[in-house]
């Protein structure tokens, strides 16, 4: 079940570490023959990451890298797989940058990929292990990204857009996209401290405007923009006062909604931060293992807890405005958002219950990435094997749970290898992959360009 997968994920991680010289020799031969290119990936120690061995990121890194030393008191937030210059992956054994390997072997990508993206991996593939909330944020489209990068390259390190897709590995909680105005209006009537924040210092009754606009779709985006901007630019002393009052009331209440509980949790992580009130403005979305969310450019969101796979266009641009000690760009965030209450409708993915493969696809115009989840289960008819043909793009795979055998067929030359939790590989265009003989439950993610 997806629940058992989430609960037992860390216990499934194999602790085998690739120190066997025979294995390293086989990996080198695999690289030479282009069967499979084993990768060594870096980790980011952001403050919101889970600490030490409680972090799935640290466990995967330890399982796949013999030189990694786990620091028990350090946060391990993200594992990065790809060619982004901030933390590029390397070819294991040789130490060559994956980017340099691809430039040396552009045929691994194919003509269609090269004509679209050049000799580059157009996506960034990550594992997240969230100990406390990420910031209230959005990612720019290409036009805005170019402007922000030109104006402030230290905070916006590249000119690329950053649509993204997140898939839960354990129970996961996210804030994303605006709620319907009818729901926000209901919270304004039920949570007086939230209402006091919205109406503070205003000559116009914004609460009444929200209520009226909830039945008038033509006014939706205008009122949402006014509401969100008012909240995010409210004077600090008023934010602190309303936050303290709400926390005090909820602390003695016997009836708390999920939003109330989440507000209290955020207050413990970021005391009196304006971002805590976004639980009443943005959709609060719990995900089970295997469920996913697609987030387009200019959509507000924050991941709050859990472990997940994430894939995005190859960018590290983030516009932040709350729940973070990092640089905040409140005015840019307020100006860039779509202010739509329907964005969540078509962005939710569920697990395929009829077979081992679940495909997660962004809209067709997002060509940078797509990703598949391959879930192998021993002795379950039709779930013991899975075949994949890389017909349009190269691919990167990462095993996150268990182990299985993998037959790699490239140019009619076959090679059988093992995939185990914590290890990732790069495969050429035109490769046939057959996953089989899982010794236990095995989950592999396969990322590729959406072309």
Describe this entry's structure for a reader.
Residues 1-7 and 9-22 have low confidence and may be disordered. Strands 2, 5, 7, 9, 10, 11, 12, 13 and 15 form a nine-stranded antiparallel beta sheet that branches. This protein starts with a helix and ends with a strand. A hairpin with a 2-residue loop joins strand 20 and strand 21 (413-420). It has helices at 2-7, 9-12, 21-32, 56-64, 98-104, 111-117, 142-151, 181-190, 192-199, 206-213, 220-232, 236-251, 258-269, 330-336, and strands spanning 37-40, 42-44, 50-51, 75-76, 78-81, 90-91, 123-130, 136-138, 164-168, 172-178, 282-287, 292-295, 301-313, 319-322, 348-349, 357-360, 370-376, 386-389, 395-401, 403-410, 413-420, 424-427, 432-436, 442-448. With 451 residues, it is of the alpha+beta class. Helix 10 (206-213) runs antiparallel to helix 11 (220-232), helix 11 (220-232) packs antiparallel against helix 14 and helix 12 packs across helix 13 (258-269). It is built from 14 helices and 24 strands.
Descriptive tags:
single chain, 451 residues, alpha+beta, nine-stranded antiparallel beta sheet, seven-stranded antiparallel beta sheet, 14 helices, 27% strand, disordered N terminus
Strand content: 25-35%
CA(first)-CA(last) distance: 32 Å
Structural class, from helix and strand content? Answer: alpha+beta
How many alpha or pi helices?
A: 14
Gyration radius from CA atoms, angstroms: 23 Å
How many strands appear in the DSSP assignment?
Answer: 24
| Major sheet attributes | 9 strands, antiparallel
Helix content: 25-40%
Q: What low-confidence regions span 5 or more consecutive residues with pLDDT below 50?
A: 1-7, 9-22
Q: Shape, please? A: elongated
Q: Mean pLDDT, rounded to whole units?
A: 91
